[in-house]
Write a structure and sequence with these properties.
Length: 308
């Protein structure tokens, strides 16, 4: 039986990607372009939280690692933007795995506090302009745009299509993860780590893999964010961004592709539609999170459970 992705999510992504630049104005194209980037980051958070069941409140760090890697390689060494995505993904995955290694034995609140500490350390490192390459509080300016075969993608529609293409690839990755052996191992660890360990699963190893995989996906989105904004600064990856990603997965639905996309829409698209209320988005989303956790703790659009 074909999965939900192949039935409608995948085709919908491609149809929207091809049709939006033709029918919507620049403002909506810009909004949906940013949505595609943050949807990728939210899906990467879902790998760690929704699928492997680990409380990660510092996920914006890996988003930032990807963005800063692209910014430095492009502005200092002249690398083309799309070329920088590979080292951004690899470095973000390495950072995620290395930072996870000493903390994955922690559980629940203890792991959450440890990841908060990682988020704060990253912010301080970027602000203090380590090695003179991060630009300090002001960040790095003058980041270029993607180019394909020498053609620079400078239009908003072009940047939108690049972001939508990345989202489509990540959705395909998530769908394949859902149906893979690795995805099943993640579910076993989340639902009953003791039983999984008894059956021979190396819990520590697979938890590190989950962190590294989620970090790598977040790093890819960091590349596009850096190019889209033409600047990266520590303020874009503060602790509140990690809280937002955490909340998106909880409210939308853990381990649910439609749920995560819905949560991203609620957090990043709806405030743009009602811009006069955008300054209250954290307050409204906080209330929504409380209500959902009380009334529907599995999220608005939870993953449909199935017999393995």
């Amino acid at each position: 039986m074909r999965t939900v992705f192949y039935r409608w999510i995948g085709p919908a992504i491609w149809i929207i990607g091809l049709g939006v630049p033709l029918v919507l104005g620049p403002n909506w194209i810009s909004i949906l372009s940013i949505f595609s980037i943050y949807a990728v980051v939210a899906l990467s958070q879902d790998i760690v939280l929704g699928r492997a069941g680990m409380f990660d409140m510092g996920h914006a760090v890996y988003f930032g690692v990807g963005a800063y890697t692209t910014a430095i390689l492009n502005t200092v060494y002249g690398w083309p933007i799309l070329w920088t995505m590979v080292p951004a993904v690899v470095l973000a995955a390495l950072v995620g795995g290395l930072l996870a290694a000493p903390i994955v034995k922690l559980r629940g609140d203890y792991l959450l506090v440890a990841t908060i500490g990682i988020s704060q350390i990253f912010h301080l490192v970027m602000v203090n302009n380590v090695a003179g390459m991060t630009g300090g509080p002001d960040g790095i300016f003058g980041i270029g745009v993607p180019s394909i075969f020498g053609y620079q993608i400078v239009s908003q529609s072009g940047l939108f299509l690049v972001g939508w293409l990345l989202l489509g690839v990540v959705l395909l990755l998530m769908n394949n993860l859902e149906n893979s052996r690795l995805g099943r191992v993640f579910r076993y660890l989340k639902e009953d780590e003791l039983a999984a360990t008894t059956l021979g699963v190396n819990a520590r190893y697979y938890k590190i893999v989950a962190f590294a995989l989620g970090a790598g996906v977040a790093g890819s989105a960091g590349t596009l964010l850096a190019s889209q904004l033409a600047v990266v600064s520590p303020g874009a990856f503060v602790f509140t961004e990690s809280v937002t990603l955490f909340a998106i997965v909880l409210v939308g639905g853990q381990a649910s592709i439609p749920g995560v996309l819905l949560g991203t829409v609620l957090m990043f698209v709806v405030p743009q539609v009602f811009r006069e209320l955008a300054q209250y988005r954290y307050f409204v989303f906080g209330i929504a999170m409380i209500v959902v956790m009380v009334i529907r703790p599995q999220g608005i659009w939870p993953r449909r459970r199935r017999i393995e």
